[in-house]
Amino acid sequence: MIKVLHIIKSLGRGGAEMLLQETLLHHDKNQYEFHYIYFLPWKDQMVEGIRTRGGIVQNFPAKNNIVIMLQAFKIVRYVRKHNIQLIHCHLPWAGFVGRLVHLLCKVPVVYTEHNKQERYHFITKTINRLTFNRQSAAVAVSADVATSIREHIHPRIPIHTILNGVAVESFRRNEAEGIALRNKLGIREDAVVIGTIAVFRFQKRLKEWITVFKKLHSVYPNVHGIIVGDGILKEEIMQHLHASGMEPFISMPGLQTEVKPWFSAMDIFMMSSVFEGLPIALLEAMSMECAVVSTDAGGVKEVIRDKEDGFLVPVDAWEQLHDPLSRLVNNKALIREYGMRARTRINDAFSLKVMVEQTEALYQSILKNK
Question: Which residue, among 350, 280, 353, has the nearest Cα to 25 in the 3D structure?
Answer without folding.
Answer: 353
